Amino acid sequence: MREDSLWTALSHTRIRPGHYLWVDARGGPTPDAGYARVERVEHLPADVLFRGADPPAKPPSAFKTAAVVWCQGLPGGLILHRGNHHRVLHAVPRARMEYDEHHPTWEETDTLLRGAALVQDCADPVDDLAPPVTKTARHAATFTKPASALLPGDYLRVHRRHPNTARGVDEGFSRVLWTEHLLEDAVERILTRPRWAHGRLVAVAYADNFDVLLLPDVDVDVLTAPNIERVAMDRGTDTFDDTFRRRFEDATEPDRASALVIDARLRPQPPAGEALLYPTLITDPHERALLLEGIEGLRSVPLSALPYPHHLFKCAHADRVKALVEQYPDAEGADRAAHAHAFSTWGPDDFRACEYHRGDWAAIALAAERALAAGGDTADMADRAGRDPELDDHDRECAASLIYDPIAWSDGDEALVNGQHRLCALRAAGAVSCPVDGRHLPDTVHEAIKATPSAQARAHAAGFWRRYVRGLGRFPLTAARAMRSARVRRRLRDLG
């Protein structure tokens, strides 16, 4: 059974006790990893929790309501955001279901949140799932610290899955993205029994923008020495936006210095062999170095090191390029090779026909490079490029855009993330290099190829066809037919 057939997405107000709710985006080695049994659900007016939560005129009724759930193994109340949909499992191993039912994390009690209603009806029973066969002999080392001392970058335990031996090495731990402290006024507004929290609450956003409310003095489990590859990958994919900060009324940012002192006092040295629990996922030495030692940011990159476009859908010649792409085989890199092929056949009139090529892009590149070399933050560099005295107003804006909305490419990537049209204009103008944003090793130097832009494009497309034929070498008859193919011979002849 496919994993995505095991779950259904429900709105936040349809989650019920007994559901197995997705609480950890990372998951684990079995289909039920990342899901926790819901033990209690409270519904309350959304504006009790959030700052500026006044509902719009005539909203859907569900948008007026917030839901907070308490799950087995979760250290606090999980806020389910209105408008989102939340995964629930259809099937769980029978032994786990029975264990979870008999070992609840949360005591039965009246509502904890002011103005809330306790949801009484329960979810339908879930189906039985084949028991896990995974056996983990040793799990990652952990330590405990008070929730009030949690810091962004900590790996917080957000659920425990039974049996322990079925869990992955670091399953159930998720990266903390942000914390804020709710003081007396906020706690009075949110809790029915503020004294229970001693006048304070800790709001924690963790990976994939889950939010959980914790009691500050309760100890939580944190990984002692997280997998360094996982940490690097998580840093690169953090989805947390600054707009999520201070989303609760009367919230304050914690004292980071104090939290660091507490962490240093409580965090032990990892036990021997801890790093060996995490076999490397990346076998290529350069890729691993880029992940672990690479930095993000702007640097100057020769255009000859950058990929060719893969989809110039806004180009004046988009239909012509699409027709050429359709003549290429369904193979890795074919779209970029076709775009390079098209580029190699265009002349000045073709480039002038495309609005993206308006302006002196060789001068634009030089202005952006000067701004980058002068240093400063992004705003300073963009401002400098946008005031370059050697450019007109249009070209100044283009130069500034190469700083504040840069071409995006990380070393080794096969395609651009942003900036295909501008890169095409830069190539056509004969620019040598330009600012590029992305992950790179600080000492990496890309060699600039001195051939003309058209010759570089022809060489790229011809290289694709040669690699394509070589790739058929495992099938000699197929390769021989390919070399006799009029299409292949014509392409190689056209491209030199």
Summarize the structure.
The protein contains 16 helices and 19 strands. It is an alpha+beta fold and 496 residues long. Residues 52-62 have low confidence and may be disordered.
User: How much helix is in the residues?
Assistant: 25-40%
Reported for the largest beta sheet, the result is: 10 strands, antiparallel
Number of helices: 16
Q: Give the structural class.
A: alpha+beta
Task: Please characterize this protein's 3D structure.
- By secondary structure, the chain is an alpha+beta fold.
- The chain has 3 domains: 19-276, no CATH class; 295-315 and 354-442, no CATH class; 317-341 and 451-495, no CATH class.
- 31% of the residues lie in helices and 20% in strands.
- It contains 16 helices and 19 strands.
- It has helices at 46-49, 94-102, 184-190, 228-237, 256-266, 285-293, 318-325, 334-345, 348-352, 361-374, 378-386, 393-404, 420-428, 453-471, 476-484, 486-494, and strands at residues 7-11, 20-22, 35-45, 65-71, 77-80, 85-89, 91-93, 117-118, 127-129, 142-146, 155-157, 173-182, 201-206, 210-214, 219-223, 251-252, 295-302, 407-408, 433-440.
- The strands form 5 sheets. Strands 2, 3, 4, 5, 8, 11, 12, 13, 14 and 16 form a 10-stranded antiparallel β-sheet that branches. A 3-stranded mixed β-sheet has the order 17-19-18.
- Helix 8 (334-345) runs antiparallel to helix 14, helix 10 crosses helix 11 and helix 10 crosses helix 12.
- The longest helix is centred in the C-terminal third of the chain and has 19 residues, at 453-471.
- The model is unreliable at 52-62 (pLDDT under 50).
